[in-house]
Design brief:
alpha/beta; Aspartate Aminotransferase, domain 1; Aspartate Aminotransferase, domain 2; 2 domains; seven-stranded mixed β-sheet; four-stranded antiparallel β-sheet; 39% helix; globular; binds pyridoxal-5'-phosphate
């Protein structure tokens, strides 16, 4: 009889947004719009489509371990040495690796805000690392004081998502560095910047320029959002040399596939796509916020490509009614926020349709 580790018995799989195909089938709909997983509203860059076609004959080859071509390019763009960059199978993989390399099972802990992105706690628990939760402030701003109070002699890692998921709340890099200065150097502070490119002023919010000056700061980034490569699974970390060195020693050698690497290299140069995406999101975010406020929803300031909101009626009713009309958004039950919903910024036509149906649901209009 196989025996599963007992601490895994109450695990349930990561709960992703619903898929378009599922909803089409369930409600017999021809068109479904997904505004649930914070993907790129413009889809895949046309240049990426071409580069995947071009390299498809090489699918039989292993990728080059360590992805040196992409690492070199990121190094030039971000102005950090190659040695400090690790490219992974989505940023999920680097989160997992950081936890496994630093925290000792059944002894150490990590500290996260509550609510926060679920992968931090899921991977920690999987590896026998306990998780300490620090409630966010009531307005979803960061409770740095609470985080300082929560750390103990077994704390190994603190995760901060900036801008935050699911609220979109964002602080300046200055605020994070001020917090970092109060943290002992044996505790790593990981700043997850999955959404930082959507900030009005990304330079002011990103901590990348501070990684080299600090022994215990890591920044993680993804190609899943601004760059539109969620399906290819590629992300990266900027880490102090010692940590990146050890992560490279234990990382599975070919976790980043060849198409993902070629696509990432291509899209980094696709300034038209990048700018168009950023403009679409920033404009759409403002539009959605204004229109939802007119419908008596409570909105939270967001610097990401999504908005968290509390509708004036039962959130689950709003979610279900939108589904019936073919719009998938994200209920936040899995974040412990039963009364809240999160909507990803879509294209202009998608945003308008979402508002149209939301209005129908809330005002019968
Ligand atoms: C805060 C945050 N970090 C990391 C990720 C994972 O990104 P990736 O697709 O690179 O694994 C997500 C995905 O939604 C996220 O919201």
């Amino acid at each position: 009889m196989l025996e599963i580790r007992k601490e895994l018995l109450d695990f349930s799989p990561y709960s992703p947004g619903l898929s378009i195909e599922e909803i089409k089938k369930k409600y017999n709909l021809a068109n479904v719009i997904k505004m649930a997983s914070n993907e790129n509203p413009l889809g895949t860059s046309p240049r990426v489509v071409e580069v995947i076609k071009k390299f498809s004959p090489y699918a039989f080859r292993y990728p080059q371990s360590g992805n040196p071509e992409l690492v070199g390019k990121l190094s030039d763009i971000l102005n950090v040495p190659d040695e400090c960059i690790v490219v992974t199978n989505g940023s999920d993989e680097i989160i997992d690796l950081i936890i496994r390399v630093l925290a000792v099972p059944y002894r150490d802990n990590i500290v996260v805000f509550d609510p926060s992105f679920s992968i931090y706690r899921m991977q920690a628990k999987f590896h026998g690392i306990s998780v300490k939760y620090v409630p966010l402030n009531k307005d979803f701003s960061f409770n740095f004081k609470g985080m300082l109070d929560a750390i103990d002699e077994n704390t190994k890692i603190i995760f901060i998502t900036n801008p935050d998921n699911p609220s979109g709340y964002c602080v300046s890099s200055e605020d994070i560095i001020e917090f970092l200065c109060k943290i002992p150097e044996n505790i790593l502070v990981v700043v997850d910047e999955a959404y930082v490119e959507f900030c009005d002023d990304p330079e002011n919010c990103s901590c990348i320029n501070h990684v080299l000056d600090n022994k215990n700061l890591v920044v993680i980034r993804t190609f899943s959002k601004l760059y539109g490569l969620a399906g290819l699974r590629i992300g990266y970390g900027i880490l102090p040399f010692k940590l990146s060195d050890y992560i490279k020693r234990v990382k599975l050698p070919f976790s980043v596939n060849l198409m993902a690497e070629k696509a990432a290299i291509e899209v980094l140069d696709d300034f038209t796509f990048i700018e168009h995406t950023r403009n679409t999101v920033i404009k759409g975010r403002k539009y959605l916020k204004e229109e939802m406020e007119k419908l008596d929803c409570t909105l939270y300031p967001s610097q990401a490509n999504f908005l968290m909101f509390k509708p004036p009626i039962d959130a689950n009713v709003v979610f279900e009614e939108l589904l019936k009309k073919g719009i998938i958004i994200r209920p936040l039950k899995s974040y412990g926020l039963d009364d809240y919903l999160r909507v990803s910024v879509g294209r202009e036509d998608e945003n308008k349709l979402f508002i149209h149906y939301l209005k129908q649901i809330l005002q019968g209009g």
